[in-house]
Amino acid sequence: MDWESFLIPYEQCVEELKVKLRGIRKQFAKEKNHSPIEFVTGRVKPITSILEKMRRKDIPMDKMETDLQDIAGVRIVCQFVDDIFDIVQRLRNRKDFKIIEERDYIKNKKESGYRSYHLIISYPVETIHGYKEIIAEIQIRTLAMNFWAINEHSLNYKYEGQIPIKISERLKRAAEAAFKLDEEMAKIKDEIQEAQRVFHSYKQNK
Ligand code: 0O2
Questions:
Q1: Which of the residues 4, 126, 137, 152 is marked catalytic?
Q2: From CA 168, how far away is CA 193, in angstroms rounded?
Q3: Where are the domains of the chain?
């Protein structure tokens, strides 16, 4: 298997999505002084993780491109939970890719405590061999959800998926605290945004 050639369209997909999603942020920041997007990251799944996940989910090689849906992944991080749903609605209206599945792990949080909104999309990439539809995953979450998820992810990696019960219980409490933080921030969202607008124009006039 020539992994390097295989992954080129996935890299292109991630790069194009990052440019487009950062474009939304830029336009909002310029025109409205507030963006529902705080930052955007993206990555192509490392080959070792691709192989590990295929083994774990029993996905045969010929089903990799359809059944392993996060080889190309981008993440949108927002300040507020409302922003997530604003972004989801904007992405549903876009003409440059098709949403093939939505997974709402905010309404239905995972057993681990994980919360996030996932969109599985089909994204068209032009290659030298012609047009190719790439399946990609867009994860949309708040800063608090992201903080929790990156810490839990590190612990999962450290303990190879077998986090000791004491730590996983703490993680569940931390997930609950992150949820409360999002709730409290939502209640003072207007105040925070007003403060950010004032700060933004102060910086511009300096
Ligand atoms: P990585 O290292 O993030 O690239 P599954 O893997 O079975 O849970 P599936 O079917 O691939 O799920 O789809 P899902 O759950 O929509 O998306 C999987 C991705 O979501 C994971 O990718 C994580 O990025 C994130 N995710 C899902 N559940 C959790 C969780 O409990 N904790 C954290 N920290 N992240 C989660 P990978 O494959 O783990 O890889």
A1: 137
A2: 34
A3: 3-205
